[in-house]
Amino acid sequence: MTKAHKTILVIEDEEMLRELLNELLSMEGYRVRLSENGHQGLMQLQTNPESIDLVILDFNLGDMSGKDLFEAIRKIKPSQQVIICSGDAYNQEITALSQNNSVTIFNKPFDNTKLLTHIHSLFMAS
């Protein structure tokens, strides 16, 4: 499947970072859906879970905890690939979630090239 057929849901409450990810991923040919909070992201995922190939989520959202959001995503789509972005990647909750083989942790600020390379490798493996 080509990049144009892959859809990435970005759940990020910081507008500047959300727009940066949108531009970065769109320029790479991915379809991007944006959510500014966890509840909005869950609604997008619930609407058509099979249309979302990857979720990139901020672990520190204002409306819900990253752990609660991650667990809700897994209830909707247990096999969902997730990249968690956090300025506190050594948080115990994040460390525990990273033991799951379909979760990757990226520290903020992250290297755009490394993020894109990782996303590409995830899609190549699936």
Written description of the protein model:
It contains five helices and five strands. 43% of the residues lie in helices and 20% in strands. α1 links the parallel β1 (7-11) and β2. α2 runs parallel beside α3. With 126 residues, it is α/β, with parallel strands linked by helices. It has a single domain, classed as Response regulator (Rossmann fold, 3-Layer(aba) Sandwich), CATH 3.40.50. The relative contact order is 0.16. The model has no long low-confidence stretch (mean pLDDT 90). The protein has a five-stranded parallel beta sheet with strand order 2-1-3-4-5, with helices on both faces. It is globular, with a radius of gyration of 13 Å.
Overall mean confidence score, pLDDT: 90
Query: Which value, in Å, is the CA radius of gyration?
Result: 13 Å
**Helical segment tally?**
5
Question: Briefly, what CATH class?
Answer: Alpha Beta
Assign the CATH architecture: 3-Layer(aba) Sandwich
Provide the spatial order of strands within the biggest beta sheet.
Answer: 2-1-3-4-5
Overall spatial form: globular
Enter the CATH topology name: Rossmann fold
Number of E-type strands:
5
> What is the helix fraction of residues, given as a range?
40-55%
- Low-confidence runs of at least 5 consecutive residues: none
Structural class: alpha/beta
CATH superfamily: Response regulator
The description of the largest β-sheet is: 5 strands, parallel
Q: How many structural domains?
A: 1
Distance between the termini: 10 Å
